[in-house]
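note to self — DONT lose this again. spent like an hour looking for the file last time. sequence + predicted structure for the chain T wanted, 281 res
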Amino acid sequence: MIVWQGKLEKMPVELQSPVKYFLDYGESKICVNNFIGRNIRLTFSSEIRCIACDKKTNKSFGQGFCYPCFLNSPRNSECIVRPELCMAHEHQGRDPKWEEENHNVPHCVYLAQTNDVKVGVTRSSNTYSRWIDQGARKTIKLANVPYRQLAGLIEIELKKYISDKTNWTRMLKDERGEEVDLVELKKSLIDKLPDALKAYADPDDTITEIKYPVENYPEKVKSVGFDKETMVEGKLIGIRGQYLMFANNNVINLRKHTGYIISFEVLDEKFAEEVIQGVLF
């Protein structure tokens, strides 16, 4: 029974214990957590629509763009991955209005631990969602700044001492490195910043712990997707980051398939009939 169909976007999340995940497109919405432990099937319709202009595209570039938008959309500008290059605060960019609304706004520099600890940057309004999307299990805010470029400059300094990458295979197997005192690490890293950047340090040392809806973690993971297959199915055992995890060790990154038109089907018909009214809203 098909319980959802539409254009894939990054799964909206709610910071609960565990995190709640949704598929949401127009009037079609489900809480994916409700299907953990059940056999599901995702079927790709062979149609991809650009997340910027909504035109059909034969191939997705940069997680959801047609090629022209991949080259020109402000949502794919270089400062998305290199925030130190952002010029939104000087009213410059591919689309100054978009940059003003999204990059010339408060940003947070944070530390997040999945296996090891990494440093990251995100809009202050998007902090919890960003942490969840990276599969972090413990986080702490390190600095708050008024615009994106400043966050990037702090990140550049901290990358001399700490990584800015997440190892996604270790995250999906829940392999944990050495436990780190995030408060002490935060203090030591702030001490290494130039005085001009130390002024933006966040005094709040609250540690946020994040739990994910996972029945059990696989010992091995195999990445699958719709560029080679039209169907992915199996028993759903968990969700972490933007990945669905299956009992057969397959994992699929839904964010990678942003813009793909798919259907979500539950294969346990009796279960579908019992819960369908409770998961569609």
